[in-house]
Every structure is written in C-alpha cells, then in structure tokens.
Amino acid sequence: MSVAHCGDFRQSYRDDTKILETRFVRVSVGVFLVFLYVFPLFSSNYVTSTMTTIAIAVIGALGINIVTGFTGQISLGQGAFMGVGAFACSYFMRVAHLPFWIAMPLAGLTAAAVGMVFGLPSARLKGLYLAIATLAAQFILQYVFMHLDPITGGSNGIQSPPPEFGSFVFDGDRSKYYLTITLAVLAVLFTTNLIRSRNGRAFIAVRDHHLSAEIMGVNLFKYRLLSFSVSAFYAGIAGSLWGMYTGYISAEQFTIMESINYLAMIIIGGLGSVLGSIFGAIFMTLLPQVLTVGTGSLAAIFPKIGFLIMSFKDGVFGIIVILFLIFEPDGLAHRWRMIKAYWKLYPFSY
Amino acid sequence: MEFYLQLVISGLVLGSIYALVALGFAIIFKSTGVVNFAQGELMMFGAYFCFSMVVQYKVPWFWAFLLTLVFSVLLALLVERLILRPMIGEPVISIIMVTIGLSSVLRSIVTAIWGTQIQIYEPPLFPETAVNVMGIPTSQVYLWSFGLSAVLLGLFALFFKYSKAGVAMRATAFSNQVALSMGIPVKNIFALAWCIASVVSAIGGILIGSINGINVQLGHFGLKVFPAVILGGLDSIPGAALGGLIVGVLENLSDGVLKSVFGLQGIKEVAPYVFLVIILMIKPYGLFGKKEIERV
C-alpha cells in the first residue's frame, strides 16, 4: 500500500490535476469498478434495479451539479429536461426508427436545445434569474408533455421501446443495469475531465466571482449558457435511460418535485463536487425507499396514526434538506473528506 | 364583449390577490435578500387555519380572521428564528433550497392535519348574491377581494413611506451594514419582514380560498407569483402590485381567448410562466426594478 506524503509535494501542473493520486486510490477505484460489474451476477433483481435508478440519478445529478455546483447558477428544471430527453428518445426510436445508440445522444441534444431556449434570456443576468426561468420551463414543459399528444401521448403517457444491439434486446434488469452503469461511469469520467479543462476552470471562475472572471477574459454569457446546456444534455441522457428503465413514460414522472429532488441531491451530496453528486444520488434514491419501509412498519405498529406518518414522508424530505443546509452545508462529500483525513494520520493525528 | 369584460374583471380580482402575495414576496426579498419559495405554503397555512377556526370550531368570521393573522405572525416568527436566521450569510442557493425544504415541510403538516380534499368556507365570508358592475353581474366576493387587496396595498405603501419601522425596513433593504451602523436592529427588521409577508399571504389565501375553495394545490399559487414580481421588478413594492394585476388579467384573457378560439385547455396554469419568459427576454429588470449595472 502506498500512501500520499504528509504535506503537498506536487511538483508539476500535471501532478496537481491528477484524478487518482496514489496507487492505493487507483487500486481501490479499480476494485470498486470491478465490483460494480460483477455484483449483479449474485444480487437479487430488486437490488440490481435499485442500482440502475441510482446510476440514472448519478447522471442527472452530475448534470445539475455542473450548472449549479460549478457555475453557481440555480436550475429548477432538471426534471422537465429529463422529460424532454425521455420523450424525444422514445419519439426518435418509435417514429424515426433510429437505434437507441443514436436516439439517446439526439435526445440529449434536444434537451440541451430546449434548455437553451429558456437559458438564453437569463444567462445574461446574474443571480437567481436562471432559477426563475427554469422554474417557468418546468411548468411550461409539463404542460407541453400533457398536451402534445402525438409525441408524448398526452395524459396517458407513451411506451419507450427497449434498446437493441443486433439481436440482443436490453429488457432484463441486469442488461439495463449494465447499460446504465457504463454510461454513468462515462459521465463521471467526462465530468471530472470537464472540470479540469479550460471550460471547467471558466465555470468555477464564473461561480466564485463573476466580475473577476470577466476581467480575466472569461465570457460570462458564453460559459453560463454552455454549462446550462451541458447540464440539460446530461438530463436528456438521464431521461432517455429513465424511459428505457421504466419502459413507459408519462408527464407525471417529470414534475417540479423531480427537479427539486435533483437540487436536493447535490446539496446533500456536496455542491461543486463530482463525488458529491454520486453520494447525493445514492442518498436521495435510497431515502424514499427507507422512508417507505420505515413508515410502513411504523404504521403497522400504530395503525391509528398511520395516515399521519405517511403524510410526513414529504416533510421528512424537507427536514433533511433543511438540517443538511444548516449543519452540513458542504454536504456528504465534505464529510467523506473529513473521514479520509482522520484515517490518513490515524492513530497519530495531531 | 361582455365575455371579455368578465374575463378582465375576474382577472383583476385574481391579479389583486397575486399582488398581495407578490407584495409579501417582494418585502422579504427587498429587506432580507431571501427568495422565498415557501410563499404559497405560508398562504395555504393561513387559509387552512382560518378554515379550521370558521368551519371546525365555529368561530365568528371577524375573530377567526384576527386569530389567523395572529397565527401567521407566530408562524413567521418561528420560521424566521429557527430556519432563516442560521442561514444569514450563506450563498443564495442554500437559502433558496432552505425555503424549498420549508415549503415541503409546511405542505406535509397541512396534509397531515387537514387531508388533501378541497375544503370550502362554510358559512362563506361574503354574501353570495351577485351585484351589477357596469351591467355585468359580479359576485360580491370578487368585489370584496379586490377592495380589500387595494386597501392593504395602499396601507403598506403608506407604511413604507411614513412609519418609522417602514423607513427602517427600506434602509435595511438598501444596505444591511449601513442600517446596522445607524442603530437599526436588522434582525428585528428581518423578522418583521417575514411577519408582514406571512400576514398578507394569509389574507390572500383566505380570499382565494373563499373564491375557489382551499386544497394543497394552493401552494403552487405561490410559484405563480414569480411572473408578477419579475414583471414589477424583483425589489419594487408598487411593481409587485402592478405586476400582479397585469399578470392576473393577462392570464385570464389568454386563457379565455385560447380556449374559445383554439380549444386549448388549462392555459391558465402555464400562461403566467410564458409571460415570465417573455418578460425576461425583453425587460429582465421589470417595470420598476432597480437595474444593476456592473461594468468591467
């Protein structure tokens, strides 16, 4: 096992931007990746399909973290852009008969284009204008989903055909999982590299101090719009995967609650952190399931207050978000770093 | 013609209620810098509390109304002290998110206490017989709502202009630091802003509740106020009033026209948001908003 030196001994810029710094980290990430691909062979369908939803959430959360966490612009429309991706992907596959491999990126681009329409007016303003514009986008798109019958099936929703590769059809829990996790890993890799790149540094500069960024020659409008459309692209991909996962999409799956859920994910996970997006996605996907089981068993013990407990599910979500914001504003990613720092010098921490 | 006139009248009524809630929103934003996504839930809570008093405990309307106002002040103080005060100095996104979390907590409390079905004030707040306005039969609740909102908006305009607390609030809005150094208790001003916002929202909630009945969907009303405040200018109080009226009328007119001409249903739900996007495109700082100029 090799550990990092005590103190910072990075001597080149290349050292500084390394993703996996030590051999120990490289090995453990490798083991984790192998684990991700091997465990469905042994796990139940329930676990596998939960992991699939987590992987989809990771892609969506990475997207919103790019615009909100790294560029500092709040987006309240991630759910609706996922919807655009899902419906677009289904439309391309059913009507244009494109294979999933082409339909999915196209759906991502569609979501990015729709996002741009709403992002354009607000990207030239600072502060919360994007939040309000995306809120409008959320409600307008939801209306469109409900009423654009030929593409979205209106209030009935519409089928989303499974992807095919040659004669192989991705319709089992396991095959869907493999497809999703591969894309999620790629999304993590892409985001990490995006943040290291010139564009990513520009995003962070815009977030930290927009005036200084502009003085340094960062075009605010361009990078705000870019980060927002990349985020919508991620949402589109996540949406098409969601369509593939459920096989059936309808407007009710992409409400404002979904958007708020994604925002909560990155806040709980950690704003401006790739790892945080992953933690947040895991947390927010598992939380409702734990709550359902918990409230269900509590309701079984105290049948009289069962209704009360059930209605507090929504409230628990709110309370958790508030508590996180007040007591752990940097999210789970920060806690993770603290734990790592603690063990790094264990048992001789000073 | 009468059809359109009727649309305009009900639009003005709706708009005056928008204006009230928008006023609450603008007061909070102006003095504390918080974008309050829980405005609709504050409104809903007030409406439900009043419902409880009037229908479940048979309190006469006048006292029920006063009790509701007292209750919304207490609720606002609680929210401000417990949730918003620890957030002072945090980035905008955290504050926005905290109000979103607050809204879902309030919504779940309302569901737990009052359930999800539509509730109706019984006995009604205003007599149900219609009266004629320029030859158009209009229900009295419309007239009362409009009148009450107008009076409240007027009172608040005077409050900000002449009362000591109102001037202190404007000073706080201008700059927290300067206000502090002039001896203004900024924390109390923040609490006061929340109280006023909660009270006007509760009144708005009772008015809209006596028109349409109340249910959990009322919370979305708070979000539909955004177009009004953006049109008026985020930090302008007369702007909020005017913006509310304009958005209310536009919403009703476009709904009526599109329904009768193109047969489109449910435009009412999205029309304000479409205006919002259009306003952002052509006049992002609104009619009266302070234009922030930053040059590099």
Strand and helix layout:
The complex is a heterodimer of chains A (350) and B (296).
Chain A: H1 13-16, H2 23-38, H3 45-70, H4 78-94, H5 100-123, H6 129-147, H7 149-152, E1 158-159, E2 164-165, E3 168-169, H8 173-196, H9 198-208, H10 210-215, H11 220-246, E4 248-249, H12 256-269, H13 274-301, H14 306-327, H15 331-344
Antiparallel strand pairs in A: 1-4, 2-3
Helix pairs in contact in A: 3-8, 3-9, 3-11, 3-12, 3-13, 4-5, 4-6, 4-11, 5-6, 5-11, 8-9, 8-11, 9-11, 12-13, 12-15, 13-14, 13-15
Chain B: H1 2-32, H2 39-56, H3 61-84, H4 92-114, E1 130-133, E2 136-139, H5 140-162, H6 164-174, H7 176-181, H8 186-212, H9 218-232, H10 237-262, H11 267-282
Antiparallel strand pairs in B: 1-2
Helix pairs in contact in B: 1-5, 1-6, 1-8, 1-9, 1-10, 2-3, 2-4, 2-8, 2-9, 3-8, 5-6, 5-8, 6-8, 9-10, 9-11, 10-11
What does this structure look like?
The complex is a heterodimer of chains A (350) and B (296). Chain A is an all-alpha fold. Chain A has a domain at 34-255. Chain A is 73% helix and 2% strand. Chain A has helices at 13-16, 23-38, 45-70, 78-94, 100-123, 129-147, 149-152, 173-196, 198-208, 210-215, 220-246, 256-269, 274-301, 306-327, 331-344, and strands at residues 158-159, 164-165, 168-169, 248-249. The two termini of chain A are 23 Å apart. In chain B, helix 5 (140-162) runs antiparallel to helix 8 (186-212). The longest helix of chain B is centred in the first third of the chain and has 31 residues, at 2-32. At the A-B interface, helix 5, helix 6, helix 10, helix 12 and helix 14 of A face helix 4, helix 9 and helix 11 of B.
